[in-house]
């Protein structure tokens, strides 16, 4: 029988553009600002555009006195849009990985770890995120899946893998007799990066101690990393995901040792459906490993 998750996805494509009328109500304007923030727009700019190419053409070839230099146009400062945090505040809030490790080590349960992470102010991603995306599934499960970072849907709902890639992941799990009551799911970074960009090395390193503690508390027998970013982080390698996937390794986090494998991210499968045949091989291997524990 052909697994339905192996078939091409339907209804793919870009969302229809948002049409903004000349007159908006207050609630509509607030909703539009929220949409901009979710898309990664985090600062306001001048109402008047500035043509930098014209400015460059007007600059003298040789540097003369200050009086000879053309005056640069003065932009009227704009207050940030409602709900849009200042970028400068992000950099000043970054904590060191050592501080994060000391804080994470205090958690004796997953609930305590989640509470500590919710109050953690050392990662600038928290400033722009709507919700903390801690985990989903069964903490008593034998298997744990780790992705990279939340997307828009995950940020809104506060749960990992609930968008299109999450729906595909659910179907992949069902193909080997699993669901979210029998797995545990988390991310290397628990807050959504603006515009779904890749987390910076600094953002990843400051969040990593919390993930390590999370893995230690869950203590899964099998761990599966989803995608290149999560795989290279946890396996501490620069090997590409296409060469890394499908290979079992013994991975030790703190005092806990488990069998671990990397596989392709569901979001990649949505873009490259032909790669599903590779992941199907990985899923069969994962099912065999679970049956053996």
From TrEMBL:
GO biological process: DNA repair
GO molecular function: 4 iron, 4 sulfur cluster binding; metal ion binding; uracil DNA N-glycosylase activity
UniProt feature, compositional bias: Low complexity: 73-89
Keyword tags: 4Fe-4S, DNA damage, DNA repair, Hydrolase, Iron, Iron-sulfur, Metal-binding
Coiled-coil ranges from the UniProt annotation: none
Xref: Pfam families: UDG
Domain of life: Bacteria
Enzyme Commission number(s) of this protein: 3.2.2.27
Catalytic activity: Hydrolyzes single-stranded DNA or mismatched double-stranded DNA and polynucleotides, releasing free uracil
Uracil-DNA glycosylase-like domain location: 134-284
Annotated region (Disordered), positions in chain: 64-98
UniProt xrefs under InterPro entries: UDG_Type-4/5 (IPR051536), Ura-DNA_glyco_family4 (IPR005273), Uracil-DNA_glycosylase-like (IPR005122), Uracil-DNA_glycosylase-like_sf (IPR036895)
EC class (word): hydrolase
Family designation: Belongs to the uracil-DNA glycosylase (UDG) superfamily. Type 4 (UDGa) family.
Name by which UniProt lists this protein: Type-4 uracil-DNA glycosylase
Organism the protein comes from: Pelagibacterium lentulum
């Amino acid at each position: 029988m052909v697994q339905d998750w192996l078939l091409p996805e339907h209804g793919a494509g870009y969302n229809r553009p948002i049409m903004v009328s000349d007159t908006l109500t207050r609630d509509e304007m607030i909703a539009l600002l929220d949409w901009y923030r979710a898309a990664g727009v985090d600062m306001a700019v001048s109402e008047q555009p500035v043509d930098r190419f014209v400015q460059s053409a007007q600059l003298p070839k040789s540097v003369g006195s200050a009086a000879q230099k053309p005056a640069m146009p003065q932009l009227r400062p704009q207050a940030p849009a409602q709900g849009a945090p200042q970028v400068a505040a992000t950099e000043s809030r970054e904590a060191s990985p050592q501080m994060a490790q000391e804080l994470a080590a205090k958690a004796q349960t997953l609930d305590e770890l989640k509470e500590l992470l919710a109050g953690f102010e050392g990662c600038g991603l928290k400033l722009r995120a709507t919700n903390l995306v801690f985990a989903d599934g069964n903490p008593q499960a034998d298997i744990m899946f780790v992705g990279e970072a939340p997307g828009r849907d995950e940020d809104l709902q506060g749960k990992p893998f609930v968008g299109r890639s999450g729906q595909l992941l659910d179907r992949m799990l069902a193909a080997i007799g699993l669901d979210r009551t029998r797995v545990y799911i988390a991310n290397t970074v628990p807050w959504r990066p603006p515009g779904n960009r890749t987390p910076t090395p600094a953002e990843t390193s400051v969040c990593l101690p919390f993930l390590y503690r999370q893995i230690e508390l869950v203590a899964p027998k099998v761990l599966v990393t989803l995608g290149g970013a999560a795989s290279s982080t946890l396996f501490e390698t620069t090997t590409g995901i296409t060469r890394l996937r499908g290979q079992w390794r013994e991975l030790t986090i703190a005092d806990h040792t488990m069998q671990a494998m990397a596989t392709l991210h569901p979001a990649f499968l949505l873009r490259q459906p032909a790669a599903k045949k590779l992941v199907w091989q990985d899923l069969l291997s994962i099912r065999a490993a679970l049956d053996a524990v």
